[in-house]
Every structure is written in C-alpha cells, then in structure tokens.
Amino acid sequence: MALIGLGLVVWPFFSASWILVVLFGSALIANGTVLLARGGTIGGILLIVAGVVAMAFTGATARALVSFAGFGMIAFGALWLAVGMKFARSRPSIGIVPGAVLVVGGVLALIWPGVALSIAAVVGGIVLTAVGVAVIWGASKPRRVDPGSATIII
C-alpha cells in the first residue's frame, strides 16, 4: 500500500490512469467471463473485447472515466442543491455549499480531466502511503500479551 501510495504521489497522472484503466478493464473482462459462463455469448464476448480495448487505449479510457465522474458530480451536486434548498431553510449553507462544490468540481473535471485525475491521485496516494506506513508500523511493534487473558482453542 505504501509503495502504491508513493507511486501515486510521485507520478500522479500516469499511475492513476494506469490503475484506473486496469481496474476498469479487468472488471469488464471478469464480467464478460461470468456472462459467458452463464450462457450469454454475445454479451460476454462484447464485455471481454471492451475490457481489452479499454486497457489498450489507457489515455482515452482514463479521460472517459474522469468525464463520466465529472458528469456524475454535476448531476449529484444539482440534486443536492435542489433537495438542500428545500429542506435546509434554517441553515442554507448546509444545502448549498456541498452541492455547489460538487457542481464546480464536476465542471473542473470536465474542463481539465488530467488535472482532476492527478489531484485525486495525489490525495489518494497520500492516504495510501499513510495507511501503508501505519500497517507496517503496527505489524512491527512488539506487543505484550497477558497469558491469563489469552484463549487457546484446540
């Protein structure tokens, strides 16, 4: 985890787009394989081919996925604004600010997909690095165990 996190921080666009596309392509291929096993010949073949094509065209696939996420953020932000304005009469900032941030983030992701993916990669990389270091530190720290409190099941 820590090494993947460092990779995301050091090479944000390359590693994030590669990880994103490999996960997406693998999911398509896995779903296609399951569909083939269940008798869905045409759908299974199409999913497998789509997964291979997605992995072959890393840049285009990453931009398409970021654009899809941008549209989703805009839609979710607009929904948040609509519902928030209706129910947050006493504190309108609760209904407006998160929705506005989502809409602005979605628009920025559509305008600059590479920057949006890089920012997400750096933030995710920092989190993964911290979690990885915490796991390594926790695993290497010696612990004292009270023999009376331990339960051994045979």
UniProtKB/TrEMBL annotation:
Enumerate the InterPro entries for this protein: DUF308_memb (IPR005325)
Where on the tree of life does the source sit, at the highest rank? Bacteria
Instruction: Kindly list any coiled-coil regions of this protein.
Output: none
UniProt-recorded name of the protein: DUF308 domain-containing protein
Q: Where are the transmembrane segments?
A: 6-28, 35-58, 64-82, 94-112, 118-139
Q: What UniProt keywords are attached to this protein's entry?
A: Membrane, Transmembrane, Transmembrane helix
Q: Which organism is it from?
A: Leucobacter alluvii
Lineage of the native species?
A: Bacteria, Bacillati, Actinomycetota, Actinomycetes, Micrococcales
